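note to self — DONT lose this again. spent like an hour looking for the file last time. sequence + predicted structure for the chain T wanted, 103 res
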Amino acid sequence: MARQFARRPRPFSPRPQRPQRPAIPAPLPAAVVDAVLRYHDETQDQGGGRSLLRLTPRRLRDGEVARALGDLAMRASQVSILWNEHEGEIIRVFEAPAARLAA
C-alpha cells in the first residue's frame, strides 16, 4: 500500500533571482578631506560666509599634492567641501558619483 503514495518528482522551477543591490562605494578616506582642505586652489563663494573648496586637475598634478594623496588623487578630484568661514568648520563634504563606463 505504501507504493501507491510514492512521491512524484517535482517539475524543475528555477528560484527567482533577487534584485541586485547597487554597489555602495567605500567611505571617503580622511586623507582626501584633509588634502582638499590643505591644498585647495579653487574657492567659490556660496554666500552667507560659506565657500565651496575644490582641487583643480592642475593642482592635483602638483608634486606636493600628488605625494600627499598617492592613489587617492582620482577620488580627490571628485570631492568638494562646503566650508563655513565664520566658524572655521566643515559644513558638508560632497563627492561626485564615479563615472560609469557605457557597455
